[in-house]
Amino acid sequence: MTQKELLYVEDALGHEQYFQTQCSETMHRLQDPALKEFVGQLQQAHQTLFHSFYGLL
User: Fold this and answer.
1) How remote is the C-alpha of 51 from its chain's centroid?
2) From the centroid of its chain, how far is CA 4?
3) What span, in angstroms and rounded, lies between the C-alpha atoms of 30 and 50?
4) Are 39 and 23 in contact (CB under 8 A)?
5) Could you read off the pLDDT tens digit of each residue along the chain, which spans 57 residues?
6) Are 49 and 16 in contact (CB under 8 A)?
7) DSSP string covering 17-49, please?
8) Residues 41, 37: Cα–Cα separation, whole Å
9) Which of 9, 23, 31, 53 could form a disulfide with 43 if both were Cys (CB 3.0 to 4.6 A apart)?
10) What is the DSSP code (8-state) at residue 11?
């Protein structure tokens, strides 16, 4: 893996971690169960992407 590719993966990891955090914080503030579930699914999707990117290292 080139240095540029490594930097891209590190950047992508940071973005996915940020999105997970945002989803988690939003989920705790929501009252509507359907929206809470939807945001929880988004958080899970970002966690899956994070692990996919992490597996590239």
Assistant:
1) 9
2) 22
3) 24
4) yes
5) 899 999 999 999 999 999 999 999 999 999 999 999 999 999 999 999 999 999 988
6) yes
7) HHHHHHHHHHHHH---HHHHHHHHHHHHHHHHH
8) 6
9) 23
10) H
